[in-house]
Write a structure and sequence with these properties.
188 residues, alpha/beta, two-stranded antiparallel ribbon, elongated
Length: 188
């Protein structure tokens, strides 16, 4: 497992293959620019190879249900996201920032304690997404898991705001807002 450290990330592609279709959801996990993180959704016929390839090519991919669409369509991707390790990386960074705050605050009494957001595993968020049976059949798990990544990216934005609001937490990562720390499977 590796962690992506790029400042800009193309939206990730969450992919599933329900009911013989290929469902792709794009989720912006880069620094918050004020737009919706759920940035596109497609349910495609498997014969539409050009569109499938275009929507997945050169992106980080979240696979649902063990889909092999990347291999079947011979699509070059930047990596397969390890959902559990990405969640763990976000928690670890939040906890590390809190430890650094505690260490710095030990010598000062006037610091405002960070207000960290709840960090929820994308699969846990996905389990709460309400869908009609028809929508569930058309989108499979791509839509709920995309919602989970949307929420994780929103929590990460709040973590970054807390980090950047305190000069003693800015380094070593620097003053730029970081994208969600995606952990990737090492076999990609």
């Amino acid at each position: 497992m590796t962690t992506a450290t790029t400042r800009y990330l193309r939206p990730i592609a969450v992919v599933d293959e329900p009911a013989g279709n290929i469902c792709i959801w794009h989720v912006d996990v880069g620094p918050d620019i004020g737009l919706s993180r759920l940035s596109g959704a497609w349910v495609l016929d498997p014969d539409n190879a050009p569109s499938i390839q275009t929507l997945i090519k050169d992106r980080h991919v979240v696979r649902c249900g063990g889909t092999d669409v990347v291999e079947r369509y011979d699509i070059a991707i930047t990596g397969t996201v390890d959902v559990d390790a990405t969640f763990t990386a976000v928690l670890a960074e939040r906890d590390s920032l809190q430890e650094r705050f505690d260490s710095h605050a030990a010598a000062r009494r006037t610091l405002v304690v960070p207000s960290w957001p709840d960090v929820v595993h994308p699969a846990e968020t996905a389990a709460t997404v309400r869908r009609s049976r028809e929508v569930a059949e058309q989108t499979g798990n791509a839509f709920p898991l995309a919602r989970g990544f949307n929420e994780l990216a929103r929590a990460w934005t709040q973590i970054e705001k807390q980090r950047l609001a305190r000069p003693f937490l800015v380094d070593p990562a620097g003053p730029a807002t970081r994208p969600l720390p995606l952990a990737l499977h090492t076999n990609d």
